[in-house]
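Problem 3 from the worked examples.
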Amino acid sequence: MAGIATTLQLYWGTYYFGLSTGQLGLAALTMVPSAIIAFLCTSQLAKGREKKSVVITLSWISMVLSVILIAAKSAGILPENGSSEMFYVVALATFVTTAVTISLSIMSVSMVVDLVEGDERNTGHRAEGLYFATFSFTAKIVTGFGTFVSGALLTFGAAPGTGELMSEEVMQGIALPYAILMVVLHVASIYCLRRFGLTRGDHTENLEAVQKV
């Protein structure tokens, strides 16, 4: 999802929403305060709650955010392309999406960390390096594959053999496949997350067992 969304972000902003380079730059600047806010607030968000439930909720929100602007434009309820109103809409969406994405990433890594004590309790040794190496390697693979998929969407969105330049019509042609793909990937992710069985109580027991050892 990250690979697809990141690769196509500039195309959506330029050709689908008609924003200028300056407007896109200003919209991107909203990521800075958004990242800071997400970093500071994620721990409070998870306080007293099961991490799995928080991540699943954030995943549903992420799914809506990934398609909401496309759906709104298709429905004809967004401002005119390139207008200041469109800029504010895209900037706000960028701000919120960045905050949700970073919180989701923090919580997901935290869930991986919680597995370490359970593994140590069962095997007698710690394997943080193995967990994080696998996590990092898998992330690189799926992000790279997402970049490939986004390139395929752009390729098939244009009329083959015509030398057609990128335009709003081309982006409109891939809007529906993109939206469907993002929904499917989010649902698949949530399905996998639901299978995560470690609870807050289990983690506390693991910590106590490891400390006793």
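Problem 4, a separate protein:
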Amino acid sequence: MTRPIRLVLAGLGLIAGTALSASAHENDVEITRTASQVCITSNGTPTHDIGRFPNSGNPNSFRAQTVRVCVPAEPRLTGRVTRRTSASGITLSGILIRPGTADFYDPRSPRGFSRDPASGWRLEGMGAAQALGMDAANAHVDHRGLYHYHAVSAGLLEAAQGTVIGYAPDGFEIHYIGANARSSWQLKPGTRATAPGGPHDGTYEQDWVHVAGSGNLDECNGATVNGRYVYFATDTFPFFPRCFRGEVSRDFLGRP
């Protein structure tokens, strides 16, 4: 297992507030902190305007709904990595972060993809953004009307506190510092060995491979900064952390 990367960045803001609340547009969110947990409760509505749903790539309608998750208040590295969770975290505005998808290439489907994993090629959210009906905030809604982000956008950053945009499932902070954080995931060379064929262009999650040392972040999009491990959102794949080095909250191990 690879070790967490150490990253030296001047002026990186780290927060540890006791309680926060915010309201803009129809957003309603409360963040509370106890000795053991940080809990975020919201109405699932962002601080910015959302796109039109349904649209040509997304048949679902937005619905405000209660979102509540808790993460460890004092996260610790465990020496192991958790790779599959129901979400990659939650923003300070109370919106879930879910960069991946549950859809796979499926030539039998009219849309070219479905929930059938037989092909082994999982659709990548931002790689297939138009087909999935993303709005200008790199987000869309699922079949329950739950709005969620697949990548960073200006709208998401409206609710940032310094460089902190939210929390990962294991309680470590997620930061955004633009190009100063460089992912170590790279597109594979050549073409796909099986259908759908074609070059590795990022349409599918399997088009990407982790190349240690090619960026300044580890495979989970994290690094140790000023003695503290944190995750980063990046402008390129994986966009948000998709594996986690701490003890993941049970709130992220089931249905999001």
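Solution to problem 4. Residues 200 and 207 are 5 Å apart (CA to CA). The first strand starts at residue 19 and ends at 22.
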